[in-house]
User: What shape does this take?
Amino acid sequence: MNTNSNVYTVIYTTVIVIVVAALLAFVSGKLGPAQDANAKAETLRQMMSAAGVKPTEELYAAKNAEILQLYADNIEEAYTIGLDGEKNGDLSVSKDKIELVSKLKPQHKAILAEGDVTLPVYRFKSGKAVIPIYGAGLWGPVWGYIAFEPDCHTIAGAFFDHESETPGLGAKIKDEAWFREKFIGKTVEWGDTPAFRLEKNAEASGAANAVDAITGATMTSKGLNEALNVWFKAYENHFGPGAFFNALEEHAIETTTNAEEE
Assistant: This one.
């Protein structure tokens, strides 16, 4: 065959494309399960860091299998809710079948559109409840996990992450422990607009639901502030005063009290 002909070029290119596609499919098939396992373990590390199950450094030093076991040992229940605040599904917490809602971008879009959502709630045996948040930073998405004390009002811990924020500036939302620690003990004012404030000199007002933004990272701070408030609003009917979650807690307490009296 004439190697300089157009036919040869087309055939050669087609063969190369097929071979490369086959190799990529093979590699993807082999690496896919490992990548999924890493992603699940990463999500669990972030959630348990927010919930204070163990120090962040220890969680990131642990192997994936250890993280799965730690989560299974400490989680009470996990489920999803709609914007009405009521449960619309359960998530398995068994070590071998742990279910998470890890793809937060579709849920974020659904929240903004006031459509159907499946927002996760992770309740730990400590009484703390963990929820995710997601939004847009300066260069890409930002997300994280917020843990609430049993009162569903006080923040017990937080963990934030990002895709591509500026090192030394916006990236501090993940890299700096002091920033995460600012949220501990703060409150979410359900029903208020905004329910929480992350902005310049926010703490100077003495407000319990405010944290100072990161100096030099204005756009990242604005994006995180918006993400917090969009997602807090989405969970308001579940955690706010008189909401489904509180009614569920009151029922559980009443049932326990009655059982003890008997």
Q: What stands out?
A: The longest strand covers residues 129-136. The chain is about 45% helix and 20% strand.
